[in-house]
Design a protein that fits this description.
Blueprint lengths: L2 E5 L6 E8 L3 E9 L4 E10 L2 E8 L5 E9 L2 E9 L2
Antiparallel strand pairs: 1-2, 2-5, 3-4, 3-6, 6-7
């Protein structure tokens, strides 16, 4: 199962997404509002197994968002709070 962590959480400005992949696969990492609308595609790439880091600048209104990782046929999500 792929892993996903968000930091800081809650936070302002920039966020870091840490991804762990048990196998190499195509990855889609996105940020969604709570109605399920895609707000930002962070990355769509093919990656090797292991740990990977992504940076994201939160140019969105303050609120709660879902960070979703689709990798190797699995989906993992985490809630993230963007503060003013």
């Amino acid at each position: 199962m792929p892993g996903l962590a968000v930091s800081p959480n809650p936070g302002t400005g920039s966020f870091a997404f840490s991804v762990f992949l048990p196998i190499g696969c195509d990855v889609r990492l996105g940020v969604y509002d709570l109605s399920g609308r895609l707000v930002s595609t962070v990355s769509e790439i093919s990656l090797l197994a292991g740990s990977h880091a992504f940076a994201w600048d939160a140019s969105v209104p303050a609120g709660v968002y879902a960070v979703r990782l689709d990798a190797g046929g699995k989906t993992v999500s985490r809630l993230m709070t963007v503060c003013e």
